[in-house]
Amino acid sequence: MYPILEKRLLAEGIWLMKVLAPRVARSARPGQFIIVRADEHGERIPLTISDFDAEEGSVTIVTQAIGASTRKICSLEAGEAFADFAGPLGHPSEFVEMPLDELRKRHYLFVAGGVGTAPVYPQVKWLKEHGVKADVIIGAKTRDMLIYTDAMRAVAENLHIATDDGSEGFKGLVTQVIDELIGKQGRHYDECVAIGPMIMMKFVALTTKKYALKTTVSLNALMVDGTGMCGACRVTVAGRTRFTCVEGPEFDGHEVDFDEAMRRQ
Questions:
Q1: What pLDDT, on the 0 to 100 scale, is given for residue 28?
Q2: Sign of the C-alpha dihedral computed for residues 35, 49, 14 and 171 taken in this order
Q3: Reduced to 3 DSSP states, what percent helix, strand and coil does the chain have, rounded to the nearest 5?
Q4: What distances in angstroms separate CA 148 from CA 75, 86, 122, 129, 175, one per listed residue?
Q5: How many CA within 13 A on the CB side of residue 67?
């Protein structure tokens, strides 16, 4: 059993939970995910790791209550426990393996949408701890749906917020902010990382492609069993079938067939 140490509401229907899972916490790296089951009869739910503390032995997850299984997860309270908490799974972010002297010369741009903001945080935090600059764009429909803004502000070089209704930050889409930063202000980035709704990642990749900016996307939303056996997470990348859970979850956004992925999603 994996006790819930803390539970906190981030936005309507979106819950943060800090879970005691020492072995997972010691091995976790930015970009990886876990699979959780609320109880012995529960469905396996893959969730990207939103933070981890090896010393405390805790792993943080963020869940949006949408279907029956995620509602069951979100119904658990601090002091209760998950039946299973398996991980870390998937490959860590590519930059984790890069030589530090090379990495510190780079400047990253992260684009986060909705609940995808949560898994962006440990990546930006890790880069900050290793002396690497990262700008972040967070997008949401409205101010009330923004999450992790204070935490992200503490680790990002620059934080830009975009809301559809203009209730906070720039009124419009994250892609318009990218055009503003790169196209109008002439800012240079070595790589863009986008995590969020599939449609957002598609248009971020289309926008960065015109600037020849390498773009990495996380396709964790496609996963089901997390072992490569069910085939639900297969996606076409550069004309090849890939499995998100065992070969990802991160891929080159300019090579992902987003239209196919969205049809299957």
A1: 94
A2: negative
A3: 30, 35, 35
A4: 21, 24, 11, 18, 20
A5: 5
Q: Is residue 214 classed exposed, middle or buried when 0-12, 13-18 and 19+ CB atoms within 10 A define those classes?
A: middle
What is the predicted pLDDT for the residue at 167?
94
Q: Amino acid letter at 11?
A: A
Helix or strand (DSSP H, E) at 6: strand 2-11
Sign of CA dihedral 116, 13, 25, 232: negative
Q: What is the pLDDT of residue 123?
A: 95
- DSSP states along 21-86: -HHHHHH--TT-EEEEESSTTSPPEEEE--EEETTTTEEEEEEE--SHHHHHHHH--BTBEESEEE
Structure tokens of 106? 């780079």
CA-wise closest residue to 117 among 154, 148, 90: 148
Look up residue 31 and give its amino acid. Answer: G
Residue given tokens 């990262």 in the structure block = 134
Q: How far apart are CA 79 and CA 22, in angstroms?
A: 16
- 190 three-state secondary structure: coil
**Residue corresponding to tokens 């906070």:** 168
Predicted pLDDT at 2 = 94
Return d(Cα 41, Cα 54) in angstroms, integer: 29
The percent of residues above 70 in pLDDT, for the chain, comes to 96
Q: Are 80 and 88 in contact (CB under 8 A)?
A: no
Residues in the chain with pLDDT < 70? 221-228, 265
Per-residue model confidence (pLDDT) at position 227: 67
What φ, ψ does residue 100 adopt, rounded to 5°? -60, -35
| Cα atoms found within 13 Å of the Cα of residue 138, Cβ hemisphere only | 27
Structure tokens at 184: 């109008």
**What is the predicted pLDDT for the residue at 87?**
87
